[in-house]
Amino acid sequence: MDSTQRVVVVGAGPVGSLSALYAANRGHAVEIYELRSDLRDPSTTPLNFTRSINLALSERGLNAMRHADQPKLIDHVMAVTIPMRGRMIHGKLPNGELSEQAQDYDVHGRSILAIDRGGLNKRLLDILEDMPNVTFFFNHKLTGADFQRNKAWFEVRDTETREQRSKEIEVDFDMMIGADGAHSAVRYHMMKYTRMDYQQEYIDTLWCEFQIQPRKESQPGSTSKFKISPNHLHIWPGRDFMFIAIPSEDGSFTCTLFAPAARFEELEADAAGTQIPEFFDNYFPGVTSLILPEELVASFRQNPHLPLISVKCKPYHHSSSVVVLGDAAHAMVPFYGQGMNAGLEDVRILFGILDKHSRENGTAAAIEAGVLPADAAASQRALALAEYSAVRVPDAHAINDLALQNYTEMRASVLSPAYRLRKFLEESLSVYVPRLGWQTKYSRVSFGNECYSDVVAKSEHQGRVLLRGLVGALGMPLIAGGVFFALRYRRAADIGVRLGQFMSSLAGFILHKY
């Protein structure tokens, strides 16, 4: 985009706010439309009607904010985050004692950051509010859009006079950015103009939020406001259930229970409230010493039990008029901690491509060719948005799939010897043979900026290499022994074949599972 454009952003969450900041930094007239009231107002209903505010911020999200040309933004973010250097796996030993097992995320000591979602959002909105070319429109609901004529219609909700009929306004734009979440209105209207493939999936898991309160200062011997380590993501894994806790600056932990819908229904039917603490004692040992049983019951009954949705679609744009980012394009389950990070990365990649096309096809050249500047800008955007869809769709689909797969890892594989063996081997190669460029899949995703699809390809390649080495190390002695006995004892002639089949089956299982 070479000349000043009118950019309409729908959605004032972190992704929408960052995209507005990128557009405003390029001199465009930016209008931000948000369905809810000002998100900085504590009385505004949170997303999904929950208080969930803790998010995992990793390198991709940080890198996107670095490119926003706002040094104070990064300074603020780093000042209010809590580094989490790994997972803390909670369980119970055979003798009944509680156990904790730390698993670092990265052999080089890198951490992901726990951050208050509301605080990050507020900081972005405050920066935007100080920019003269940015205007906010809260309580505005997108009701229609014409992406051929670049017009949109918003219903204005008057929160003070709810009984009066809402009025509707018409808005013109050069480009609309849809960052309005998994149930995106922008995407809905865009589908009327483009042949979009769309896939939506709810997994058979619900989630509910709980809180571990800060340690009371009056407690004897207390040296920290945190009841458990603040530098870990705490996991109570189970085959079908999972309970996690993420630290907050005030010493509390935002906790989430993930369980099948059928289990939630069983606990909801517990009128006396006795089954809920028993459930936690059975599957998440130690939690009832961190959250009082009556608080567990109250949180389970008062907080909503929400589904987890996964959304895939393509393309992410229509012509030069509109593009969707973040959850509007690729809502994912939260088990890789990449939802917000991928959305913020969308912004960096989108504007990088827009800038590239602006440099390569500037309006000066277009004027010489007899094309009007406005038409030239639209032509540039169309090429840029098409490239963005082509580049980003495979990566977004890749991280969407990884997030689903990571649910299995967090619930069960973290306790698996095979999982820990592969992690140990990959980290050892990363440290002792760095020229190989060997890293774990998690490190590539969370501590780098490689394309998600490239991460998957490299991880699969590493898995095949490790598997061949493992099969060679373990299988050859067995096969050699089988051949020896087959030659010596004719009746055992099929031993070598059977061992070979066994090792092949084992290899296939490990490659698929890990």
UniProtKB/TrEMBL annotation:
It catalyses: L-kynurenine + NADPH + O2 + H(+) = 3-hydroxy-L-kynurenine + NADP(+) + H2O. The keyword Zinc does not apply. Its cofactor is FAD. It is found in: Mitochondrion outer membrane. Pathway: Cofactor biosynthesis; NAD(+) biosynthesis; quinolinate from L-kynurenine: step 1/3. It is an enzyme of class 1 (oxidoreductase). Pfam families: FAD_binding_3. One of its GO terms (cellular component) is mitochondrial outer membrane. GO terms for biological process: 'de novo' NAD+ biosynthetic process from L-tryptophan; anthranilate metabolic process; kynurenine metabolic process; L-tryptophan catabolic process; quinolinate biosynthetic process. The chain crosses the membrane at residues 465-487. InterPro entries: FAD-bd, FAD/NAD-bd_sf, Kynurenine_monooxygenase. Residues 6-366 form the FAD-binding domain. Catalyzes the hydroxylation of L-kynurenine (L-Kyn) to form 3-hydroxy-L-kynurenine (L-3OHKyn). Required for synthesis of quinolinic acid. Belongs to the aromatic-ring hydroxylase family. KMO subfamily. This is Kynurenine 3-monooxygenase. The gene is BNA4.
